Description:
Structural class: mainly alpha
Order of helices and strands: HHEHHEEHHHHHH
Amino acid sequence: MSDQSASPNELQQPPLSRTDWVIERIRRAILFGxxxxxxxxxxxxxxxxxxxxxxxxxxxxxxxxxxxFVDYDxxxxxxxxALTLRxxxxxxxxxxxxxxxxxxxxxxxxxxxxxxxxxDTYGKIDAFYAASNTxxxxxxxxxxxxxxxxxxxxxxxxxxxxxDMLADQSTRMQYASFTPRGGKRAARQEHRHLFExxxxxxxxxxxxxxxxxxxxxxxxLQLDAAPVVSESGADKRV
Length: 238
């Protein structure tokens, strides 16, 4: 899958900085499977691909390493980090603790502009779920945006940054989580309930539904992840 799956409005927005723009392009390539776990990210290849000098790439690799997307060594370069079932469990456990707080704060502070954006993102994700039973990059992007909007009104900047980072890591696992949960039919129903509660301004109910949604995803990942275990009992790979 290519990072060109980005929505036109997102990629046409002026970047805050060259480095931030580079980070988002590489992050998207990782999130949507254009580059795989363990794949080497070379400065020369990405300089040519993005039309930038090595300087913002080095900064991007360092930032993405801090976010857990790549393993980076100034001498050996960068590789896309692998995710294990242990990683998935830890990420979702933390999300289950933090994200309902962010969502509850966001819904409580809703305004007409936020409601309109929520309705727009919900319409997109619901359209993907109604269209077919195949998980597509566009559906994953719509899912990412819907939950981002649910959180975005959170009053705490720290909480928002943490939940955004954890949610992006979760996007990498999302393909593994749909089959045992009933595919798009189950996901469509969950997101309709979230949208209805948030639109009604029921912050507590939306937070409760968010926690349940994340817990079901974690349970599905544990059931459906393909195990690759070494003789030494190393972690299973997602």
